[in-house]
Amino acid sequence: MQLTLLKEHQLLEGLARNDRKITEQVYRDNFRQVQAWVQAHGGSSDDGDDVFQEAMTVLFQKAQQEAFRLSCKIGTYLVAVSKYIWYKKLQQQSRRPDFTPFDDGDEEGGTQFAYEDDVKVQEEREVHFEQLDLAMEELGEPCRSLLKAFYNEDKSMQDIAALFGYTNPDNAKTQKYKCLMRLKKLFYATQVQK
Predict the structure, then answer these.
(1) Is the preceding peptide bond at 142 cis, omega within 30 degrees of 0?
(2) Same domain, 115 and 144
(3) Which of 13, 62, 108, 167 is most buried (CB neighbours < 10 A)?
(4) Which of 78, 93, 123 is the last residue in one of the domains?
């Protein structure tokens, strides 16, 4: 995680210097994720473009400030800012007039707190995904492949029974349950170590 933050710090410094290559790299690394998120939440491809551009502008302005410190990945920050921008656009367009994600009393302060709250949620998710990856590595075979087949590849219990040589889908389901329990135990063990 420390190495990642060092790289992120270098990217921020590049943005502050208005380094075109760094800006292009940040764009390439994060644009698709933001655009996909906006489209999944009622926006068009053009909306995704606009939201990402606005989020990049916010990041660029923040990078210019000496006091600005990023405690997460740039992508996490851009997604958090993009979510806030998109929710504000939805609210302004009255597509969802009942939706008020943040207090609008203090525009500048409210915006800052909104970004920080969303960034914290994204950071926590990243940490959980890292812990889950570690637990999956420790889990070993055949449990790792079985769980990936079920959750990532959407295979049925019938398919898993045939693929892994279980006599019937019920046996495969029992094995999946045992693997899940082992994964859960490993996952919580990595949380305790952190």
Answers:
(1) yes
(2) no
(3) 62
(4) 123
